[in-house]
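Exercise: predict the fold of this chain.
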Amino acid sequence: MIHLNSVTDKPYAFGSRQPLLVDADLDIGVGRYALLSHSPERHRQLVDVLCGLRPTSQGFVTHDGNVSWAIGRQGFIRGKASGLSMIAFVSEMYEIDANATYELVADLVSDPEGLAKPMEHWPLYARQEFSFALALAPAFDVYVIEGAIPFEPCRFTRLWLALFEERLIGRTLILSSYRQNQMADYCLKGLIYERHALRIDDDLDQCLSRFPPRRSRSESGTGDDGLGGGFDEGQLGL
């Protein structure tokens, strides 16, 4: 569960500080939620708040259990570190067995030999695969996905989806995506951002009709991670 307690947040965005949340209170219990709004450009900041990736201006956010990082976020896999180094880092952070984590990731990705190479030299599809595969290693209680879930018909997608659906049993999903069909397939409720607040709506179909998913400005362009292309250009269809 995620608890928002009198949260006010005014992050820097689009050239100035703008209110994101104002005195927001909400308990997000176990369930599957589609993050929806008329302002998908603010979803990245909302995900930061929900995952606890940065402190809020006022109030606080608490978690019951482990909450994932922003799975699928552009720029998560980059830099001079190798895949093996990232596996070791995540394993230590979440106190899981590094050998088991490596075996899981190596079984899923298309090129396991590439894990020993610096991530900055990987093709885009390899970064996508690694990012999603590594997210299945820790036993998260809440999975937060920013972007499209892998859907391109290929070996990686079939294996990943099968494992992901197992991981989701009895756990929570918060999905921020421009793909409405994925929200309809994986989510049961709407997590609505409106008027500087978050609320839960049980009628997902009505929510999707009122807040039709679309790409944010960052997703429509090349992104901010310096990869020279958004995830939509990868073989996973992201």
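Check your answer against the key: The chain has one domain: 2-233.
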